[in-house]
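Final report, Chapter 2: Outcomes

The project's central promise was a pipeline that accepts a single protein chain and returns its three-dimensional structure in a standardized token representation, suitable for archiving and comparison. That pipeline is now operational. To close this chapter, we reproduce one record exactly as it appears in the project archive, with the input sequence first and the structure output second.
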Amino acid sequence: MLGVPLLAALALPSLAGEQRDEGDPQALRIGVRVVSHMPVPRQELAKALEEATLLFARVGVEARWVLCGALVEESEKSAACGRPLEPGELALRIVPDPNGMPATSRDALGHAVVLPETQDSYLASLLHDRVQSLAEEARCPRAIVLGHAMAHELGHLLLGTLEHSSQGLMRARWNGEDLRLAQRRSFRFLPQQAEQIHAGLRARLHARQASLRDAAKVF
């Protein structure tokens, strides 16, 4: 499904402090399984996930991350990464280059596979080499660029479109000013995008509930 075995997992605590109660079945949450074809420094990854978590928290969505593959040691492996994705769970790959990916523009930091008019879009990829190049060019910490790129590509999946906006996090191309805003935590989803993300997550939740009801009929 992802091109490499999902060998290991490390569950990270959510950083979204303003979410609904844990027992609320309508709480807007996403699970993201992160798998890498290459090692990423742990401090860099932790900071990137913190940034991405905050970006989603600001639009009222709690992100929960599970690390797989080269991102964790063999001793930390979990059965979670070996299971099929659940409805509403997304997958995010970190790869060194675009080989084997659908065509991307030369300056794209990643790619999302969006299936029109369905809730089945689940896979996004990040090009770590390009993230590193942009960070160096803009003199911005790599973890900041990586975290914002994560939220951007996952945003495509949740918005259900590959279209970009003229402002904010979902801009097609980022410049130095965008990344200066990112360092000040002022580069984010637009309000109308938050509404679309909420609608998309609720549709995924309803699809999951429907699948559970269908499964219950078997017994």
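Archive annotation: The CA atoms of residues 8 and 76 lie 6 Å apart.
This record, like all others produced under the grant, will remain available to the consortium after the project formally closes.
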